C-alpha cells in the first residue's frame, strides 16, 4: 500500500514538474509553433519551391535579427531595455569593414577588435545605468546616438572590404546547414546556456522579478546589470560581423540601426520574454526573430507592397506587447510566473 502511495506521489510530482516546465517554456513553445506554421505556409506558397540558396538566404536574414534579439533579451530580463543594440550593430559593421581584412592573422585580430568594441559599448551602458542610477531607456538612447556618430566617422560613405575567406566561411553551408544557423547554435551553446546557468545569469532573472527582493537576498545587482549590457554589446558585435560577411561592406545607416532595434524588441516579446523582466529566454527570441523575418517573406509571396511592411511589423509588435501585458495583468502574484 505504501509502495503504491509512493509511486502515486512520485508520478504526481512528475506531472507537476512537467506542468511547471511547460509554464516556464510556454512562450518559447508558442513561438516555435507559430514559426513552423508560418514558414511551412511560406514554403507552400512558393511556386518554385524552396531551394538551398533560398533557405540559406532566409537563414542569414533571420540570423542577423536573431543575434540582435538575443542581445536585447538579456537587458530585458533585468527589467531594462537597450535602445542602443541597433547602433552597436551598425558601428561594429562599419568597424569590421575597415579592420577584418588582410592575411589570416590580421583578419583574426580585426575580429577580436570588433568583438571587444561591442563588449566595451555594452560595459559603458551598464556602468552609466548602474552608477549613474539612470533609466536604461534614456541612457541607451543617448549612447546609441554616440555609437552611431562614431560609426558615421568611421564610414561616412558605404564601402570597405572584408577578408574573402572569412566572408565565405560565414555565409556558406555545411552538410546543407547554413553557417549562420551553426553560428546561432554556437552562440546558444557557448554563450547563452553558460550565462543562463551562471550566478550573474540567475541574478538577472531575480532582478527582473523584483530588484528590491534581489537586493535584500544579497544578489550582486551591479555586476549582474553590467554583465547583461556587456553581453548585449558583445552579441550585437557578432551580428555586425555577420552583416559585414554578408554584404562585404559597412554602412552607417541610422534607419538600419533603428529598424533592428525595433524589430529586436518585437522578436523578444514574440519569443515569450516579458518586457517587465524576470521571465523569458534568448532561445525564444531566436524564433521570434525568424517569425518577424517570415512576416516579410509572406508579404512578398502575397505580392503586398513592401512599403506597407513597417505597418505590418508595427501591428505584430503592438499585438505581441498587448498579449504580454494582458498575461501579466491576469497574475496577482508575479511569482506565479515561475510556478
Describe what you observe in this structure:
- By secondary structure, the protein is mainly alpha-helical.
- The chain has one domain (51-338).
- Helices cover 77% and strands 1% of the residues.
- It has helices spanning 2-24, 26-45, 52-77, 85-99, 104-132, 136-154, 164-171, 179-197, 199-209, 211-216, 221-247, 254-270, 282-301, 309-329, and strands spanning 173-174, 177-178.
- The chain has a two-stranded antiparallel sheet.
- The longest helix is centred in the middle third of the chain and has 29 residues, at 104-132.
- The chain is globular, with a radius of gyration of 21 Å.
Could you name the key traits of this structure?
two-stranded antiparallel sheet; 339 residues; 14 helices; mainly alpha
Low-pLDDT runs: 6-10, 331-339
Q: Got a strand count?
A: 2
Biggest β-sheet strands, sense, barrel: 2 strands, antiparallel
SSE pattern, N- to C-terminal: HHHHHHHEEHHHHHHH
> Helical proportion?
over 70%
Radius of gyration: 21 Å
Question: Looking across the biggest beta sheet, what order are the strands in?
Answer: 1-2
The N- to C-terminal Cα distance equals 30 Å
Q: Globular, elongated, flat, extended or rod-shaped: what is the shape? A: globular
How many domain units?
A: 1
Q: Tell me, rounded to a whole number, the average pLDDT.
A: 81
Report the portion of residues in β strands.
Answer: under 5%
Question: Tally the helices: what do you get?
Answer: 14
Structural class: mainly alpha
Amino acid at each position: 500500500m505504501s509502495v503504491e502511495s509512493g509511486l502515486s506521489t512520485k508520478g504526481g510530482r512528475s506531472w507537476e514538474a512537467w506542468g511547471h516546465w511547460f509554464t516556464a517554456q510556454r512562450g518559447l513553445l508558442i513561438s516555435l509553433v507559430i514559426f513552423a506554421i508560418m514558414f511551412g505556409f511560406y514554403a507552400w506558397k512558393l511556386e518554385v519551391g524552396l531551394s538551398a540558396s533560398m533557405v540559406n538566404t532566409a537563414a542569414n536574414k533571420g540570423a542577423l535579427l536573431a543575434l540582435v534579439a538575443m542581445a536585447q533579451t538579456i537587458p530585458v530580463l533585468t527589467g531594462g531595455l537597450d535602445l542602443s543594440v541597433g547602433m552597436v550593430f551598425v558601428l561594429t559593421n562599419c568597424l569590421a569593414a575597415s579592420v577584418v581584412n588582410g592575411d589570416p592573422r590580421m583578419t583574426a585580430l580585426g575580429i577580436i577588435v570588433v568583438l571587444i568594441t561591442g563588449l566595451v559599448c555594452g560595459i559603458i551602458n551598464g556602468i552609466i545605468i548602474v552608477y549613474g542610477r539612470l533609466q536604461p531607456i534614456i541612457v541607451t538612447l543617448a549612447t546609441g546616438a554616440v555609437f552611431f556618430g562614431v560609426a558615421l566617422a568611421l564610414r561616412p560613405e558605404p564601402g570597405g572590404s572584408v577578408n574573402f575567406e572569412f566572408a565565405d566561411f560565414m555565409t556558406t553551408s555545411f552538410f546543407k546547414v547554413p553557417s549562420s544557423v551553426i553560428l546561432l547554435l554556437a552562440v546558444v551553446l557557448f554563450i547563452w546556456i553558460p550565462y543562463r546557468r551562471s550566478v550573474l545569469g540567475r541574478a538577472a532573472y531575480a532582478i527582473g522579478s523584483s530588484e528590491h527582493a534581489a537586493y535584500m537576498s544579497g544578489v550582486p545587482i551591479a555586476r549582474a546589470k553590467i554583465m547583461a549590457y556587456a553581453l548585449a554589446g558583445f552579441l550585437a558585435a557578432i551580428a555586425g560581423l555577420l552583416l559585414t560577411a554578408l554584404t562585404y561592406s559597412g554602412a552607417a545607416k541610422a534607419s538600419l540601426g533603428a529598424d533592428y532595434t525595433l524589430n529586436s524588441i518585437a522578436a523578444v516579446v514574440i519569443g515569450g520574454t516579458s518586457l517587465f523582466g524576470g521571465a523569458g529566454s534568448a532561445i525564444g527570441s531566436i524564433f521570434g526573430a525568424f517569425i518577424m523575418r517570415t512576416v516579410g517573406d509572406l508579404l512578398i509571396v502575397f505580392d503586398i507592397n513592401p512599403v506597407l511592411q513597417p505597418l505590418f511589423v508595427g501591428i505584430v509588435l503592438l499585438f505581441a506587447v498587448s498579449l504580454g501585458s494582458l498575461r501579466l495583468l491576469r497574475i496577482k502574484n508575479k511569482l506565479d510566473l515561475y510556478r
